[in-house]
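Budget justification aside, the reviewers requested a transparent look at the raw inputs and outputs of the sequence design task funded under Objective 1. We therefore reproduce one unedited record. The lines immediately below are the structure tokens for a 177-residue chain.
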């Protein structure tokens, strides 16, 4: 992953390059059976250059523990490698510019299961427009990968029903491994 990481750290393919402190390439075990895909770096991630290190990241660690997994067992990357201003939604042209990087990461890790967090990651992998509310918790085969869409951890913080659903989905992740 080192060569690709060097390229991405110098990327200027979309305007998000202007607002970033750090590129957030991704981290974890490149031989993992489970790859977790998020949306884009937030403030803490931009500051530290690592994915899911803020509040959503602490919660992601709890969710991984529910599935008997640790961070070092998985590989984590985002659809976008640079933080959108004020954490706004990724734009189609930014996703398109950044897409080759996540595709290459996915090919290199070659996981059994891809857990997509929220709508943007799920749409990126499944290439459809269906919403996460109907897709979450149902594994689907996409080529050689099992794709497992779940709610984004940040989206469940103030929604107890979604939070319960997300935790149940992580408990069920065990049965896919
Ligand atoms: N939310 C994401 O989608 N990715 C991160 O890295 C942090 C928060
Ligand atoms: Fe490059 Fe992706 Fe960052 Fe845009 S978001 S500058 S495409 S690494």
């Amino acid at each position: 992953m080192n060569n690709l990481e060097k390229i991405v750290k110098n990327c200027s393919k979309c305007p998000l390059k202007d607002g970033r402190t750090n590129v957030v390439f991704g981290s974890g075990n490149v031989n993992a059976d489970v790859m977790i895909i998020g949306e884009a770096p937030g403030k803490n991630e931009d500051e530290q250059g690592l994915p899911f290190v803020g509040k959503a990241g602490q919660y992601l660690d709890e969710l991984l523990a529910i599935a008997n997994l640790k961070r070092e067992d998985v590989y984590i990357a985002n659809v976008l490698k640079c933080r959108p201003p004020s954490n706004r939604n990724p734009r189609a042209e930014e996703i398109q510019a950044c897409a080759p990087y996540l595709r290459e990461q996915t090919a290199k890790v070659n996981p059994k299961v891809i857990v997509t967090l929220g709508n943007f990651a799920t749409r990126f992998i499944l290439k459809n427009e269906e919403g996460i509310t109907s897709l979450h918790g149902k594994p689907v085969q996409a080529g050689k990968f099992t794709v497992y869409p779940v709610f984004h951890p940040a989206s469940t913080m103030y929604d107890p029903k979604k939070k319960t659903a997300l935790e149940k989905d992580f408990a069920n992740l065990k049965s896919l491994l």
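The beta strands are 27-28, 34-38, 74-78, 113-117, 140-142, 145-150. The CA atoms of residues 43 and 83 lie 7 Å apart. Computational costs for records of this kind are itemized in the attached budget.
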